[in-house]
């Protein structure tokens, strides 16, 4: 028996033209979209799309199927909307994009108290800003701006990218080299230490190194862990170094389990922005979320 979700996925691919856009529209994964499509193609017995590069071009059979189901599917979707209208009016759903660590340190503690539904998405900033422009997200917390005329950016905080170490690190030699402004020797000293990094994301280390030493690091971290909070926990009361945003280890620096070793002779600062569409139906809800961020980070 055919699954109705296969038809919904087929329609989303037909309307958006790509598997990725269909996945975003349906709030499911791209592999899930591919599975639905292949299941439907197996069920009907013929190919529904030709794959040309990243575009999905409907075949003649695909066009016939779409014309056959479009009206009936719309009637079912309208019925679903009408059935949910009363609750949706009182309980809107806000989709927010940010990095995983920012969510943990800010919004996570308040999620259960919010008077509306929330969907949190993690990802790369350019992709999240693109999804914001498309209407898939309602708010993005980002240190970057995109070139989208319909999006406004409100600066609300900043972060400094710093060199930190565990409390067991003996950094006396390094501090002496920095005091003498012998940055070449300081760089050589750092290369010989144990380093922590995160899976697939070395941007903080690369930018910090390039700004302060004039080149990119020619080494890989000794320990690769899932995220920045994992780095902080690994450094807690131990040995090793990392380059991370200061606000993500503020508490540990204050209690002495992590050391702030160096802000660099040139500080690397990021401005954090609230990014949202200029025309939004959720201004009240977004203001509440923004106030919570300001409460934690200012």
TrEMBL record:
<comment type="similarity">
    <text>Belongs to the LysR transcriptional regulatory family.</text>
</comment>
<dbReference type="InterPro" id="IPR036390">
    <property type="entry name" value="WH_DNA-bd_sf"/>
</dbReference>
<dbReference type="Pfam" id="PF00126">
    <property type="entry name" value="HTH_1"/>
</dbReference>
<dbReference type="GO" id="GO:0000976">
    <property type="term" value="F:transcription cis-regulatory region binding"/>
</dbReference>
<dbReference type="InterPro" id="IPR036388">
    <property type="entry name" value="WH-like_DNA-bd_sf"/>
</dbReference>
<dbReference type="Pfam" id="PF03466">
    <property type="entry name" value="LysR_substrate"/>
</dbReference>
<dbReference type="GO" id="GO:0003700">
    <property type="term" value="F:DNA-binding transcription factor activity"/>
</dbReference>
<dbReference type="InterPro" id="IPR000847">
    <property type="entry name" value="LysR_HTH_N"/>
</dbReference>
<keyword id="KW-0238">DNA-binding</keyword>
<protein>
    <submittedName>
        <fullName>LysR family transcriptional regulator</fullName>
    </submittedName>
</protein>
<feature type="domain" description="HTH lysR-type">
    <location>
        <begin position="2"/>
        <end position="59"/>
    </location>
</feature>
<keyword id="KW-0804">Transcription</keyword>
<dbReference type="InterPro" id="IPR005119">
    <property type="entry name" value="LysR_subst-bd"/>
</dbReference>
<keyword id="KW-0805">Transcription regulation</keyword>
